[in-house]
Amino acid sequence: xxxxxxxxxxxxxxxxxxxxxxxxxxxxxxxxxxxxxxxxxxxxxxxxxxxxxxxxxxxxxxxxxxxxxxxxxxxxxxxxxxxxxxxxxxxxxxxxxxxxxxxxxxxxxxxxxxxxxxxxxxxxxxxxxxxxxxxxxxxxxxxxxxxxxxxxxxxxxxxxxxxxxxxxxxxxxxxxxxxxxxxxxxxxxxxxxxxxxxxxxxxxxxxxxxxxxxxxxxxxxxxxxxxxxxxxxxxxxxxxxxxxxxxxxxxxxxxxxxxxxxxxxxxxxxxxxxxxxxxxxxxxxxxxxxxxxxxxxxxxxxxxxxxxxxxxxxxxxxxxxxxxxxxxxxxxxxxxxx
Length: 338
Known about the structure:
- The protein has two domains: 35-118 and 221-337, 3-Layer(aba) Sandwich (D-Maltodextrin-Binding Protein, domain 2); 121-216, 3-Layer(aba) Sandwich (D-Maltodextrin-Binding Protein, domain 2).
- It contains twelve helices and ten strands.
- The protein has helices at 50-57, 60-63, 76-84, 95-105, 150-161, 181-185, 196-204, 231-234, 236-253, 259-267, 277-291, 303-315; strands at residues 35-40, 66-71, 90-93, 109-114, 121-125, 141-144, 170-173, 191-195, 210-213, 224-228.
- A five-stranded mixed beta sheet has the order 2-1-3-10-4, sandwiched between helices. A five-stranded mixed beta sheet has the order 7-6-8-5-9.
- Helix 10 crosses helix 11.
- The longest helix has 18 residues, at 236-253.
- The chain starts with 34 loop residues before the first strand and ends in a 23-residue tail after the last helix.
- Mean pLDDT is 90; it is low at 1-28.
């Protein structure tokens, strides 16, 4: 489990990101009164984490007495390991990854806010041969983003949720970019797991597919902010401050008049990600409904969803533990203080 990575397939460049409170080339000298903390992304610097880049650019973290340095991770495992080792303060990962690591391997982390309120993954299929239920891919071949990764786990969980045997589904790696469609067009797979970014790219190109969101059968909280468990008691002020700034970042994202500034904020860390401005804007617009709960309060923790997800992970064998209480995995204590 600890080798699991989250591949999202976007283009990226490794760049030296700004380490002060804005992305301007003529930054002011670092304010010694600000608390320096690092955030490790699950995968490089992409639009999925735009709330943080915007909060840096707009000075929201500075208002909370923080200076946040985003570090582009090489996979979910790197985010979790760096936070566990106190090499970073904040990380981000989905429940299907964090919960088994906490329960079965003793990972010393806890989720403090839920970013994705809806799964960014779907089973894509041809419109004239749509896959609308897990029973339809029993005995067939489905493409996953990575072997043993979160998409394969979610696919298995969808089968288990309907009382089906996940071992009767053949999985092959099709990746996470638009090239995964070729596997479907050549008839090598009957469907494949896609994520929000590639769905947006297909939409831009006028490619029509049928999408079955994994939440329809296996609802699992998506990418969520976590910290080291030991920091919960002593670092409450910094945690709340980070989350308050992040929520302001999300609120900034949802206003169409801010799109250019959002792309500037992301581009400060990854120019390639925003080089196709039309596609980048579509990704930002798609990200907002993914992250906005019905209450409208970004980062809200859906505890009922976490409880049902933990139960499903136990039933599907993703998690071996059967007794650990929900409060060991997630807390709404800090987001409730925003």
